[in-house]
Amino acid sequence: MRNTMLQIRESFWFIPAVLGVLAILLAQGLISLDHSIEERQLHTFGYFFYEVGVSGSRSILGAIGGSMLAVAATSFSITISVLATASSTYGPRLVRNFMADRGNQVVLGVFSATFLYSLTVLRSIRSQSSDNVAFVPDIAVNVAVILAVICVAVLVYFIHHIADSIQVSTLSARVRSELVSCVDEMYPELPPDNAVAVDRSDPALSGDVVISADTSGFIVTIDEQSILRHTVHHSCTVEITTAGGRHVLVGDELARVRSGEVSAELITAVRKCFSLGDARNPHQDIDFAVQQLTEMAVRALSPSTNDPYTAKNALAELAVGLVPLVQRNDIPEGRVDEQGSLRLLVYRTAPTAIVDTVFDAMRTYAVPNPIAVTATIDLARRIGTAARYQHTRDALMRQLTLLDDAYCASGACTVDIEACTADIRTAQGDIESSDSRNNGRTVESET
Question: How far is CA 253 from the centre of its chain?
Answer without folding.
Answer: 26
